[in-house]
Amino acid sequence: MLSRVAESLYWIGRYVERAEGTARIIDVHLQRVRVDPWTDEDRACRSLLAVMGMPGRDDPVTSADVVAVLGLDERSTASVAGALAAARENARGIPEALSAEMRECLTVTRHDLADAFFRSVRERCAVMAGLTEATMSRDEGWRFLVLGRSVERVDMTARLLRTHEKMGGIVPSWLTLLRSCGAWETFQRTYRGSLDDRHAAEFLLLDRLFPRSVFAALGAAEACLSDLEPDPGRSGVATDAQRLLGRARTNLEFRGADELIDDLAPVLADLERTCSQVDEAVSRRYFPRTAAVTWMSEVVA
Q1: How confident is the model at residue 114 (pLDDT cuts 50, 70, 90)?
Q2: 15, 121 contact by CB (below 8 A)
Q3: Which positions ≥6 away from 165 have C-beta within 8 Å?
Q4: CA-CA distance, 164 to 83, in Å (whole number)?
Q5: C-alpha–C-alpha distance, residues 201 and 185, integer Å
Q6: How far apart are CA 157 and CA 107, in angstroms?
Q7: Rounded to an integer, what distance in angstroms lies between the CA atom of residue 172 and that of residue 293?
Q8: Rama region for 57: left / alpha / beta (φ>0; ψ in -120 to 50; rest)
Q9: What are the pLDDT digits (tens) for 156-169?
Q10: Residue 178, number of CB atoms within 10 A of its CB
Q11: Distance between CA 89 and CA 112 in Å, rounded?
Q12: What is the pTM of this model?
């Protein structure tokens, strides 16, 4: 597979996952501010923007500002609109690697932004994920796309958890975090409604069966890389990206839930740093002619 095609598929996976995750986060944030009169809107908005990598501001920040920056700013791939635009542009460059239904899904999603914004984005991203599973061969292209989606899922969940940790466990609540990750109903069935710090952190970080947990996403990314490198050699792993992901997974896997709560801040910082390092390692290994695309620097034309 050409490195250009592989890189485009990797970033389509990341951008679509980012659009869906960011739409979930903004949707839940708006609902919380709307229904809870005790929420400090300025503080909650500042915390959310900071964790999503946005620069600080001196003037008061409202939920409308959050929507403008994280939802509608097409110049930034950190926003929903920018991520979808970037995914569509990547898809337009590799028509031979995607089904017609997948390309149409990205185009329609892009055009539907003005109507029922967040619900539309979530639903259309889910359609895109379904088409990915239903119409793509399980070849290298599918592995690069799933690899990008999995790395983005780790990064997004770590950033979301940092909003909770940075605010001292007050804003947003575990309920809000679980809903932002689409995990609330599954969490309830798993722990029978027992919502506390230990169980919520354990579920979002360590659960082996929930596909949006950090542990499950790290495992999915490792599996993709392992399939891309069928010959691991005589010892260790074949690539730097595998080493980074494996180290992050074992760092979570062998911690108890209580220990995880005590060390939550450094654990989350390590996960975000690992995602950035994996981008660089994957780019060096598989996309040698292009530079790594970073979280904030790319501007959509």
Answers
A1: low
A2: no
A3: 264, 265, 268
A4: 24
A5: 15
A6: 26
A7: 30
A8: beta
A9: 888 888 877 766 65
A10: 22
A11: 16
A12: 0.77
SS3 of 5-62: the string is HHHHHHHHHHHHHHHHHHHHHHHHHHHHHHHCCCCCHHHHHHHHHHHCCCCCCCCCCC
H-helix segments, 167-239: 174-180, 184-191, 197-206, 214-228
pLDDT tens, residue by residue, 14-40: 999 999 888 888 888 888 777 777 778
Which spans in 93-196 are helix H? 100-111, 117-135, 140-166, 174-180, 184-191
**Each residue of 37-79: pLDDT tens digit?**
777 888 888 888 887 888 777 788 888 998 899 988 888 888 9
End-to-end CA distance of the chain: give it in Å, rounded: 27
